Amino acid sequence: MARYNAWQNKQLISVIKVMQEDALTQDRGAFFGSLLSTLNHLLWCDQIWLSRFDPAFPKPEGRDTELCPTGAAWCSARQQCDVAISNWAQNLRQDDLDAELTWYSGILQRDATTPFARTVVHFFNHQTHHRGQVHAMLTSAGQEAPVTDLIFMSEDG
């Protein structure tokens, strides 16, 4: 799933880096409004989960939808985060997945504990969920939306 995430984001980056900023920030009626706000939310959440999985990874600062002010900044931060996700996933072991994870939930306003494996599934499912929204917004903006079918990912991602 880390490889799939990186593949998907690599495709998105190729589209985002050539789009005009006004097209990225235009409110498209999605839950987070614009493409950039949705992409920022997803990146922010990936960073917050990584900081929970590995305390050495820094927590994101500021509001989730305002993490990166431009498409170019998002592309750079996204690539860095995907490298971190891949490195983390390569070092993940069954013992880790069999444990529980406790973290402070801003949504619940308290500590939460879940099986680590379920949390990892949530982490990757959350990415897929929001990339679906991004796909729809890109299509409505007249952009070429990336191929998302896992079956079409090459062996090298």
What can you tell me about this protein's structure?
It is a single chain. The protein has helices at residues 2-16, 21-25, 35-53, 71-90, 94-98, 116-140; strands at 100-105, 110-115. The chain is mostly helical and 157 residues long. It has one domain (2-145): Four Helix Bundle (Hemerythrin (Met), subunit A) (Up-down Bundle). Strands 1-2 form a two-stranded antiparallel ribbon. Helix 3 runs antiparallel to helix 6 (116-140). The radius of gyration is 16 Å and the shape is globular. The model has no long low-confidence stretch (mean pLDDT 94). It comes from Sulfitobacter indolifex HEL-45.
What structural keywords apply?
157 residues, mainly alpha, Four Helix Bundle (Hemerythrin (Met), subunit A), two-stranded antiparallel ribbon, globular
Topology, please?
Elements: H1 2-16, H2 21-25, H3 35-53, H4 71-90, H5 94-98, E1 100-105, E2 110-115, H6 116-140
Antiparallel strand pairs: 1-2
Helix pairs in contact: 1-4, 3-4, 3-6
From the alpha-carbon coordinates, what is the Rg to the nearest angstrom?
Answer: 16 Å
Mean of pLDDT: 94
- CATH architecture verdict: Up-down Bundle
**Principal-axes shape call:** globular
Order of helices and strands: HHHHHEEH
Keywords: Metal-binding
Protein name: DinB family protein
Family: Belongs to the DinB family.
Organism: Sulfitobacter indolifex HEL-45
